[in-house]
Amino acid sequence: MKFEAAVIEKFNRGPEIREFDISPLGEGEILVRIEAAGVCGSDLHIFEGRDPRIRLPMIPGHEGAGIVADMKGDVLDVRGNPVHPGDRIIWDRGVVCGRCFYCSVEKKPFLCINRKVYGITFSTADSPFPNGCYSRYIKLSSLTRIVKAGADISPEVLVPVGCSGATSFHAVEESGLREGETVVIQGPGPLGIFAAAFCRNRGAGHIIMTGSGKSRKRMELARSFGVTHLVYRDEMALESQLEFIKSLTGGRGADIVFEMAGSAGAVESGQHFLARGGRYMITGIAVPVGSVGIDVYENLVRKNASVRGVWVSDTSHLLKALEAVEDLRYPFEKLVSRRFSLVEAGQAIESVKDRDVLKSVIMP
Amino acid sequence: MKFEAAVIEKFNRGPEIREFDISPLGEGEILVRIEAAGVCGSDLHIFEGRDPRIRLPMIPGHEGAGIVADMKGDVLDVRGNPVHPGDRIIWDRGVVCGRCFYCSVEKKPFLCINRKVYGITFSTADSPFPNGCYSRYIKLSSLTRIVKAGADISPEVLVPVGCSGATSFHAVEESGLREGETVVIQGPGPLGIFAAAFCRNRGAGHIIMTGSGKSRKRMELARSFGVTHLVYRDEMALESQLEFIKSLTGGRGADIVFEMAGSAGAVESGQHFLARGGRYMITGIAVPVGSVGIDVYENLVRKNASVRGVWVSDTSHLLKALEAVEDLRYPFEKLVSRRFSLVEAGQAIESVKDRDVLKSVIMP
Amino acid sequence: MKFEAAVIEKFNRGPEIREFDISPLGEGEILVRIEAAGVCGSDLHIFEGRDPRIRLPMIPGHEGAGIVADMKGDVLDVRGNPVHPGDRIIWDRGVVCGRCFYCSVEKKPFLCINRKVYGITFSTADSPFPNGCYSRYIKLSSLTRIVKAGADISPEVLVPVGCSGATSFHAVEESGLREGETVVIQGPGPLGIFAAAFCRNRGAGHIIMTGSGKSRKRMELARSFGVTHLVYRDEMALESQLEFIKSLTGGRGADIVFEMAGSAGAVESGQHFLARGGRYMITGIAVPVGSVGIDVYENLVRKNASVRGVWVSDTSHLLKALEAVEDLRYPFEKLVSRRFSLVEAGQAIESVKDRDVLKSVIMP
Amino acid sequence: MKFEAAVIEKFNRGPEIREFDISPLGEGEILVRIEAAGVCGSDLHIFEGRDPRIRLPMIPGHEGAGIVADMKGDVLDVRGNPVHPGDRIIWDRGVVCGRCFYCSVEKKPFLCINRKVYGITFSTADSPFPNGCYSRYIKLSSLTRIVKAGADISPEVLVPVGCSGATSFHAVEESGLREGETVVIQGPGPLGIFAAAFCRNRGAGHIIMTGSGKSRKRMELARSFGVTHLVYRDEMALESQLEFIKSLTGGRGADIVFEMAGSAGAVESGQHFLARGGRYMITGIAVPVGSVGIDVYENLVRKNASVRGVWVSDTSHLLKALEAVEDLRYPFEKLVSRRFSLVEAGQAIESVKDRDVLKSVIMP
After folding, report:
1. Across the interface, do A105 and B80 touch by the CB < 8 Å criterion?
2. Each residue of D200-255: pLDDT tens digit?
3. D346-361: per-residue pLDDT in tens?
4. B104 touches chain C (CB under 8 A)
5. CATH class of the domain comprising C165-309
6. D320-336 CB burial, b ≥16 within 10 A, e <16
7. Is the pTM of this model over 0.90?
8. Nearest CB partner across the interface for A293, out of D102, D106, D292
9. What chain A residue is nearest to C197 in terms of C-alpha separation?
10. Please, which residues have CB within 8 angstroms of residue B241's CB and are 6 or more apart in sequence?
11. Subunit contact C319:A180, Cβ cutoff 8 A
12. What residue segments make up the domains of chain B, in order of their start?
């Protein structure tokens, strides 16, 4: 059987549409017809050759949703439901070994030393193949964790759940957010929007989104996801931002600050918002940004506070993110800003640079 | 290649020594020459036909240690060390699916709904084969989690780590024991002896072992594993036992009580030992014992206390139990009471009934 | 200054309206004009002489809200806001010592061995006086923890926060409820209604309320507080109830069951609803009910599940319960079923027996 | 009654020995005859005028142990034992309000916004008086939390428990250390020595102490407190230190690093030692050190690791530290390097600068 996929053969070129053959399925493997593939900020890094994990040629796309086209053997999804051809599914983009120290002893599979990621760590020479979502089909190995999605959620809404949704949930979970706590979210991108909804679902009190005036549309949209206050950081001095946060919290500050802007500058400013006992969750920084200054006495020791890094996600985070979307309490369909066809993959990747675009989706 | 194993073909008979063939190894599989196989209380249940999971004919033995005789492909153990022929290893007796709700979302693989156990849930018709430890060899599937053991620990000392050690560690971990807390352990069997050492390693204050005067040798041995006080339950009224525990704790009672005696009677008495905020860990009850009366107001509500069940173990518990043995702080070699050859498997199983025997081991 | 209060002088009689003098305030003390006093199930126990802590004569009423009439010295509430005459406040009914093992080391003040409770452990001879809420005034000691309430919440809505709200929050917090978990609540009383809202706020998935057909009005009301399914236990066999719960959860069962019915029978049935890893929270049983049978192997060990008792509450629970009411997401005003004047205190206590009454309030 | 105390009247002068009167005791107050007062690094800061909390004239000394000379009313210690004249006691140097947000809601009294500290925040004009330990007597307010110490532990051994012991325990507790984890401790001072013992008591695996060759005596002493490896940071390049740590841990790195050196440089180097999932506990930095560079991507995000500040301690930490000393497993008496009389208070403070001195004690 033949199929088409978008392939990066040289950095900063293409991707090119190529035709490939699909080989027969092995036991437990699933062939998925991709309905929608998400375009993530890291796809731009990949395209530009800034991600050291990449081996060319490769099919990008680590966020996807699709319909089971074929499968071999019986498979249950992580909720215990049998998977059949015709079912709409999503899956954990990371495939973990289950046997290393982090998988079996720490039980933190997101730290698995053998973790592979569809659309990132596979080249076209690797198996299973096809192995990225910018493609009409993807083949999922028997170790891949599958979740059947409700038929009433459209595939482009499911797509961001798999990466930014799951990672954002991971950050909220590790923050230990308790009822009534005050939250600051830096950055109204997909990570931040998801975080707002997750925090609201978990009983947060004030949820303050900080962002640039250039992202005004996204900032306003954030209100629909539980954000209670907007702070435009380029229209207000840092000192005034801090005063505002303190005014909401009896002078204490924010219990949790989520860095979801992806910049060192966010860390430099956001650390000052912490209350005593506060937690600063660095979630958006996915590439090296150098050394960032922390006022360790004033912001950490004196406050008994912490700064924590959040690395990717695992299946538990994926499922919880999906459940929040299925719950229908928030308008997640509004996250999808633009839709592209497979041949427009290059434009789709470029669209990530546009500050008005929250999420671009390729529908092969 | 031919090998011999002890096989239960009919309940309450044998086991018979049979000869089998070993088929070629698949990718990631390991063939182990068994040096020592532990005899567990549940082996007696299996032999007598009281364990509903059993399908005959089968090779018993879920605790084992041995030398890698052959392997196919590269395998790392859970500590990240490469495994080679000639290495002494132990392994997680439970093989889990990695994809069900409990494995991938709850991250409690000991609750995996597809969990298989060497020496228990396999018949001689199943693969991998051989699949029990009362055998000269066992073949471990590629999903089995392996741990290389230090060469300086003898195999019969490693054996109890795999079942009672790991389960006991699980209980201590779930108890949330904090430094200085007072612990009561009911039952000086392998579970209880391990628990004493684990509690001491974790900073427990008083460690009180309760048991029968018929187990006086084991009770005395427990002192070498961190137990600070012995209470002979058949020589002291329950009320006096409670008074004694209170006298050690400023009138508060025990922070944690471990049921490791395997009887409903232990639950009936042990619940009264709890302090406010206490935790009662039912660990030894491995078969149905009917309904047990709990004074829910006096012992749970008024004390904000809990009763918790502990089910088997996972790889993290196994590794931590092993590390405690490797630490050489306690004389774990004293746990091994009797050694049997493979042809004496029937006697070995019978020896579990003897109150003076802490641990019997078969050395094929 | 003179004031009137309802006093129990003999069990099963009165209460009588008596006039008393108010003595001058000490440093840090607050005199509160009671606007509303809640009638709790335990007030009936007190009235009938079934509560061993009671010394007569005494003024009942441990739930109250009122206006600061007078105060001596500066007082901040627990949110850090200054308290002034004219402010509407509630307070932690329990006054704790701050220096015992449970207060200072365990940091679980609800277990304080010196805990005193307004309206329960004080007689009219004790100081501070007046010290119960069935009164025109109450005097709060300098150790009492105060919370200023928003002026837009009516006092009778605040009243149940102080006892059933806070205790219910305590139960939800100790349950460790995580996003998406399935909850069963046994009993549509104030505890259960609050629990539904708290669970929903914390991201619960299915919330199933079980109750009798005789409480149909309350059961239906529970839907407004986040309950997603109603199970009438007298119209459905236990086995069918369990099947229903399993049908909602991929066959797993309930992650958490809250006993909020106050009966041993609830424990006997509810334990069977637990999923693997489940937690059974006994919250409603406030008086001895004798020994209750637990199938420890099937419901606790095999499932690695627990049964936990929940004892009263502390200031953290009170504040979190208040915040949920202030959040205005649920119609807490509907909890108040009947209003009484001070002279009707006897009838108010009797009204607790009426199954249609969710909450009675005395407005002195 | 008259008594003498050492008083700082001007910074960098004295302290002067002055004579004062003791006023009558109030209810719940305790008069203690000081047997030993610890000299802490922060006493030097106080003496030099670098601590902004100080109001002169004042009696320094926040670590003390002594004999109850007089008391008014019944007092129980935090273990529930009655306190009598003649008892040897220690106490929590911090007196907390019990009613602020951090005391009553967060239940983290070490963050109390009204926290007062004997020997630091009191001037000679404040009550209770005397209120510092460089004195023949101290008067403890009724809110002070008391612990009776075993009579067999000498007062100079008890002294460091109250500040560095308690703070060190706080750090170990917040680190969440689990059995078998690898620990690096930066700095062989009292904080670090205590931490080694606490980590060992809690089941740590490797315990690596890093320090300067100038502190060789203290480094060697650390071995007696559970340290398994010494790393002289001025004799080994940072890269080699890291390689050494990785060689012990299957290439993973340290699970926990304790900064107990009090310098920004320690943070700059120590962050690199972290394993995936690691925690860096800043404990020794007690004065502002400016902004410290953290490689947030490499050391926090990519590793899902955290940097946490630890601020002082509360009564629970004090008691646990004391219990470790009472346990007699480690030679805590070796911490006391030098003894001074009250008139030598100035020399005692100066002795803190001597790298061979672990702990100086004043014995009035």
Report:
1. no
2. 999 999 999 999 999 999 999 999 999 999 999 999 999 999 999 999 999 999 99
3. 999 999 888 888 899 9
4. no
5. alpha beta
6. bbbbbbbeeebebeebb
7. yes
8. D292
9. A203
10. B210, B231, B233, B269, B273
11. yes
12. 2-163+313-362, 165-309
